[in-house]
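Internal ticket #5521
Category: modeling
Description: The requester needs a full-assembly model to guide mutagenesis choices. All entity lines are attached below as received. Residue total reported by intake: 454.
Assigned to: D.W.
Attached entities:
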Amino acid sequence: MKNLWLFLVRYNAFFWFILFFVFSLALVVNNNNYQRSSFVNSSNVVVGSFYSNVNSWKEYMHLAEANKDLLDENALLRHQLQEMVAKDSINEPLITDSMDNPSRYEFVVASVVNNSVHQRSNYITINKGSLDGIEKDMGVITSNGVVGTVLNVSLHFSTIKSLLHPDTKISVSVDSTSSAFGSLVWGDNTESRFAMVRDIPNHVKLYVGQPIYTSGYSTKFPKGIKVGYVVQTDIVSGGSFKDVRILLTTKFEKLTHVYIVKDKLAKEKLELESLNEDNG
Amino acid sequence: MGRIIIFNIIRFLVLLILQVAVLKNIGYYNIAVAFPYILIILLLPIGLPNFLLYTLAFLTGLSIDAFYDSIGIHAAACVALAYFRIFFHKITIELDEQESFNTPSWGNMGFKWYSTYIVLSVVIHHVVLFFVEAFSFYNFIHTLLSIALSGVFTLILIFVISLLTYHKKSRVIN
């Protein structure tokens, strides 16, 4: 017994090392596998408010660009509004399709307080939290593309698992009308401007410059949001599917404002779909 | 003694803020990223009890993790670094010195000792960090490249910081 004690004391550095190291690894594994909302991340108050302070300085650097984006978006919205006003409702029968109804989705604007593009797994922190109705797994978009999904929510902040993260998968379709679809992933890229669309059926013809849109199959993103353009088509993944490389329309380095997509029918859809699993 | 504690707290805050506010946004994609915050652990007083050293290293890593949203990865690397630090001090520092509360800095220990200490520490820290982050040996070459380039980047920054704060024989007798 005494010898054992002496042994432990003599090599205490090693045993402490094992203890602390295993504990750290447990944290890593827990966090990776289950995406549990843990306290120590950038959605907590200390880290979140630190980054919003830093960001209030950094925002000035991108003001001109942010302004230009907002102006572009304004112009686009004004154009759409004009179309709606000009539309003659008598020519078309008024049928309300609840699935494509624009009021199905609600958008919450938030500003980005922390962003990274240089890590292997990138996250974004925004200044809206559960008080503003943000919930886990909501989709996040910007005026010109998709950003990611909400990962953790605190009262005033949320963290977003960016598209630039190995676990993010978004259902996309080729052209807004086509039925061909695949999943958008960041892939093995190290650049924040490019991503991959995997598992597109081989019979679908693709050309460089073809736009890619969200498919609207999940409750996270509405249908028809432009994601990017095809830049490389001849990546063979084997079998009956192919991969393409796309240039993202979202500029991740210069993200200042994002919109969180609230799907009012999400709960209904998920509940209905969960019945499928119960039936086997 | 009190002075040393205050110095260490200031060093912790300055390097942490430098890391998460400035260096987080600087890097060559995700291949070369600098982590000079490990100086916080490397420059803790020599005679620190092992358990305290591990706790401080773990908390430092966890603070960095909180800002990087990478729970446990930096903590694991910092704990490994603390183990290496204990080992290195044991075989290179004389017994009476090991009890003292001196800072193992460039000025106190000389360039030869300090540079060996820093280079080996950066290697250990980065190897653990990047392999825990990848969590596999898939993409082995990419990970090795990240370790090498980030290591060089970190070393340059650490030596610049050390040069700027260089004091010849600034030992405090306790």
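Resolution: model delivered.
Comment from assignee: Chain B has one domain: 2-164.
Ticket closed.
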